[in-house]
Structure formats: C-alpha cells, structure tokens
Write a structure and sequence with these properties.
The chain is an alpha/beta fold. The protein has three domains: 81 residues, Multidrug-efflux Transporter Regulator, Chain: A, Domain 2 (Orthogonal Bundle); 82 residues, Methyltransferase, Methionine Synthase (B12-binding Domains), Chain A, domain 1 (Orthogonal Bundle); 121 residues, Cobalamin-binding domain (Rossmann fold). 58% of the residues lie in helices and 10% in strands. Strand 5, helix 11 and strand 6 form a beta-alpha-beta unit. The protein is elongated, with a radius of gyration of 22 Å.
C-alpha cells in the first residue's frame, strides 16, 4: 500500500496542508500514523476519502456535516453526484479515478468533458494539467506504474476512438508523417497531434511507437512527406538527442522536422537549428494555415 505525506495530499487533492491539519484536529476526518518525529503518514484509503470530501465540499456540502458520516456514506454521496459532472470538478474526479483504478469514473468524466468542450479543449485545459499532476505524483513516489499505465491507456483509447470517428482527409497533398523514435513508447501527445491535423482536413500518415531509424528512412523515401512530426517524453542523454536530430536533419534533405513533448521543450536550445519546436496545439496548427 502506498504511503503519502501531507504535502502529497495537498498536491493530489488541491486542499492546503494547513486546511487538512485543521480538518483533522477539529473534525477528525483522517487518522494518519505518525513517525517518532511526528511526521504524518497517510494510506490509499485516507487519500481517497480526502479526495471524496474535497469533491463534496466543492459541491456545497459542509465539512462539519461530512465529518460525521462514515467512509461508505461519503462514497454513496459521491455516487449521487457523479451524474452531475461539472467541469470544475473534473480534476478531482480524474485523480480519484487514478488512485482507485476506477475506469467507469474516468471514462464518464472524460467523455463528458469531450462532449461538452471537444477533444482539443479537453486535452489542453484538462488532460495536460492532469498529466502534469501525475508527473508530480510519479516524482514523489505516490503512484505506481500500474496506476500510470491504467490511466494512460484509457486516455490513449479515447483519443483513438475520436480519431476513428473522424473523416479521413482527401489525399490532395504529400502527407505529414507522424512517428515516435525507437526509445519512445508514450504516444498520447502524438495521437493528439494526429487528431488535430485530421480535424483540419490535413493528410497524415501515423506510424506510431518505437520506430527504428532505418525504418523511418524507408518511410520517408516511400511517402515523401512534406513534414515530419514527432514527440519525445522519455528522458535521454543530451548528446543522444542532439546527434539524433542532427543526423535526421542531414538525412531528410530539407523536409521540415517538427518536434514536441516534454524533452523537446526542455532541450529546445540544444536542437533549435534542426527542428521546429511544437509547444502546444496552436503552435502546431499555425504551421499549416492556408
């Protein structure tokens, strides 16, 4: 079972550590274990309970009322408001689904967001902040690999469904080639790029994850794309990244190389002479205006 510090609870729930301490002292809502040095330690059940309390509190329930209810009664109240999927509660719902591996809650929340504001706004306004929070959780060790894989695969599946529902653009120009390099398996951003380009009627060819460099060269020779688009999330050595794009820039013979993702954005100065940096959806689409 995971163990959380009070600072972890603050990051995950959005409730200030000071407020959590007050709720504990005044209402006894949580009962953390304490080390010899008085450092609080919380478990998964207590984190889930706090997430539920936060969600209910934001929906008008007073903490004084919630404090006298059992864990099961709190869960029942949460179930009652799950159909009232307000956008400003989405982060709490997504985090709660992550912690408890609740596929139904995650799919319902994500589906409602997409139905309400569309995939583009859902991704930029809700999923990116959510994935940023997952990154913090991963760094401090408050989630494990199974939780991260669970959520990533649900997001991936949903974007693929949305792409599948799109009309295939007419082949009127050379395509945009989308791929991930051989060391990279995180394709959520690349799938979103595919969705965005398809939504604008742009001809794309999606090759996907972990493409060996030799195979990439073969694809370029066959497709003759007007641009190449990739995303890097996995951390690599600076020297590897620079040599990779320097070689690719040399081999593609003038075809624009577009690249986004956390590692690209962190190291953009290192490779700026070889690529066009993609910072967000607007910067991507700006390169394909008529």
């Amino acid at each position: 079972m995971s163990v959380y510090k009070i600072k972890d609870l603050e990051v995950l729930s959005g409730i200030k550590a000071h407020t959590i301490r007050i709720w504990e002292k005044r209402y006894g809502i949580l009962n953390p274990e304490r080390s010899d040095s008085k450092i609080r330690a919380y478990n998964n059940d207590e984190l889930t309970h706090l997430m539920n309390l936060s969600l209910l509190n934001k929906n008008g329930y007073k903490i004084s009322h919630l404090a006298i209810l059992s864990f099961d009664e709190i869960k029942e109240l949460v179930w009652e408001i799950r159909d009232d999927l307000k956008l400003d509660n989405s982060q709490e719902k997504l985090i709660s689904a992550l912690i408890s591996l609740d596929e139904e809650l995650f799919r319902d929340t994500l589906g409602h967001l997409i139905d309400t504001v569309g995939l583009e706004r859902t991704f930029s306004e809700h999923l990116i902040p959510f994935l940023d929070r997952i990154g913090v959780m991963w760094l401090v060790g408050t989630i494990h690999a199974a939780q991260e894989h669970f959520i990533s695969n649900l997001i991936r599946q949903k974007i693929i469904v949305e792409i599948n529902n799109q009309k295939i653009p007419e082949v009127t120009t050379d395509p945009i080639l989308l791929y991930l390099p051989e060391h990279e398996w995180h394709e959520i951003s690349l799938l979103f790029y595919q969705y965005l380009l398809r939504s604008k009627g742009i001809h794309t060819v999606y090759i996907g994850q972990s493409l060996p460099y030799g195979s990439l060269q073969t694809c370029i020779e066959i497709l003759k794309p007007k641009a190449i688009l990739t995303s890097w999330l996995t951390c690599v050595e600076d020297s590897f990244m620079k040599s990779y794009f320097k070689q690719l820039y040399k081999d593609v013979g003038g075809i624009p190389i577009m690249a986004g993702g956390a590692q690209i954005n962190l190291n953009s100065q290192l490779i700026k002479e070889y690529i066009i940096e993609i910072k967000n959806s607007s910067s991507l689409l700006s390169h394909f205006k008529d």
